[in-house]
Write a structure and sequence with these properties.
five-stranded mixed sheet, alpha/beta, 7 helices, 36% helix
Amino acid sequence: MDAPIESKTAPFTMASRFRGFLPVVVDVETGGFDCGKHALLEIAAVTLRFDENGQLKLHDSAHAHVVPAEGMEIDPKSLEVTGIQLDHPFRLAKQERDALEHVFALVREEVRVQNCQRAILVGHNAHFDLGFVNAAVARSKHKRNPFHPFSVFDTVTLAGVGLGQTVLARAVQSIGVQWDSKAAHSALYDAERTADVFCALVNRWGPLSGDPHTETR
């Protein structure tokens, strides 16, 4: 078990930079657009850390295929987009609660190590991902959800302001990262590329300037 991080070289820690929150990038693949009736089929989370130069970078990840919860619907058109084959012999899907715990365990440990109070979901159209996470938590009666229940960092908004792009593929390409259209719509791949965009935007912003009321002109 890692000791809590107390950086003496980077200009700030994760907890100080994000007011006690730990940004964790999440992507889900689903059986449709309605978190109340469509199944969660795949979930991935990517954790981030500052390096010794204060640059935010991808750190670790957890990913799981999910057995559709009983009673949840799957739109065949969604499977055409994602390419998910529910009966694939190597899919190795987990029951919904086990899949959540697999991802949440990584996030909870990183919250502890980074001296944060709780995680905050980062996503491209983040409320879509959070909606499916919250719905799965409620269905499975999971009691240790590390994420804030309604606050998010949405990279659609951030990339629109910072990069002039709102489509994930174009935002990724605008920061000089190659986009693999064949790998897209995998939860882990999309989470990693969303993390690239979020890190690039945070790093471009640079160190916080302090109290805006004392800023010199």
